Amino acid sequence: MKWKNLTVSQILDQAAEQRPDHEVLYDLFRRMTYCELQEEVEALAAALVRMGVRKGERIGVCLPNWHETAAIYLAVAKIGAIVVPFNTRYRSHEVAHIVQNAQTKVVFVCEEFAEHIGIDLLLPLVEHVVTVRFKRSEAADYAQLLLEGRGGTLPVVDIDPVEDVFCILYTSGTTGFPKGAMLTHQNVIYTAAQTVETLACGAEDVFLVPVPLFHVFGMISCFMSTLLSQARMVLQEKYKAVDALRLIEQERVTVHHAVPTMFILELNHPDFSTFNLSSLRTGIIAAAPCPAETIKQLREKMGLNICVSYGATETSAAVTFTLLDDEETNILETVGKGAFEAEIKIVNDQKETLEAGQVGEIVCRSLGVMKGYYQAPEQTHQALDTEGWYYTGDLGTLDQNGYLRIVGRKKEMIIRGGYNIYPREIEELLYRHPKIMEAAVVGLPDSVMGEIVCAAVRLRENAVATEEEMKSYLKQQLADYKVPNRIVFVDDLPLTASGKIQKGRLKDRLMETYEPR
User: Fold this and answer.
1) How far apart are CA 476 and CA 177, in angstroms?
2) Could you read off the pLDDT of 26-45 as tens digits, one per residue?
3) Do residues 186 and 341 lie in contact, with contact meaning Cβ atoms separated by under 8 Å?
4) pLDDT tens digits, residue range 170-217?
5) Handedness of CA 307, 313, 315, 316 (dihedral sign)
6) Could you give the domains of the chain?
């Protein structure tokens, strides 16, 4: 409970005081100790104050997993301003929406942003653009800011961890523009603390950070958890399975968090067996449905005592965890129980609480649940009720012991001829097939049945299969109405920057070759 009244910058201050010479991060560009990171944070914070940044103002960050990203997040937090990370894969209209919606005062950008979107887009919308690891005459330079800020004085800023917002994370909404979830200092520290506690993390641990720091999983479960445990993190600028495996061996990584797709790519890499992964101890698999077969392989082949977690941007990442000593069935079939002081319930469409085993919407309440959506009171009201319960839009069941099973997204449920079909059930079976590497199931429109079931399947290297073979396999284990009408073999599945399968884009792709009745 030591974390309860702390702010994000105080977490760094504690670590720098207690372990000044302990390495905090390595991004393949630079190694930094806690003391060095604190010095850079203080210089940058002083420079931002000189720029005119005040408490509560929004600072945009469009950078990959670099040490500068870590320093910016912490410097912004130190002066009570608010971090607004951008997905580095956003298009110009998405960036413009976020900059205008959040009313950002300063935006930090990388060269990739300048090349693909252009600084000109930002100049009329913000007061300052700051370039990182490259220079432009019309923008300020990060390295120069550090020089100007060194030795500068910082004003005393009163930050309330419960009320004051640390970051606004824009969710990748399936419809319309992204919404900005406001996460307070307490929100993010709470989830980081639950992660550290659940995985028994300490200063001797080494975290691999393959997930982007602009994503809630990377920012909180990886980055904040490292700082809270005063450990070390290895930042991957761009995810590649072979690089992740190489870094685990080289840096003796002990904690490996990732989304299922990343773990699947690592387990199936042709050189997997040549890497020494004996340093691995534990990690979290989350941010997308976790196939039981993948979890089994992580435990057997990678030696990871893996924890399964469930949450959302709006819950500051994880709200449930399986435990290190949980029974195997709980780890393979559930996403665990509610974290410390977290409450989970299942409700029907009338918002009535359902009994154990009944399928309904997952609703949760915890210290990690967001303050609300920025400048969106109506959407906040739809997601959060007056008692602080967050309505996730996910379907699930709770068992008698409080373990949560995910059935699927409410919006992804397929209704075929009046029958409710949950894609997750079919996907789990496909993942168990020895020839299949990845799979996703979506509904496609049909004038007779309403919707039909379509599975997109990516085979393992050198594997050969037919649609009939796959249907025959599924018919042995599923009710006939659940067996996909179409099974399409694909070379890849569209992914978000954080590694989630984008079912909306997949559906669009499948519709190109589908003629509905």
Assistant:
1) 42
2) 999 999 999 999 999 999 99
3) no
4) 986 544 678 999 999 999 999 999 999 999 999 999 999 999 999 999
5) positive
6) 8-183 (3.40.50.980), 186-337+404-410 (3.40.50.980), 413-511 (3.30.300.30)
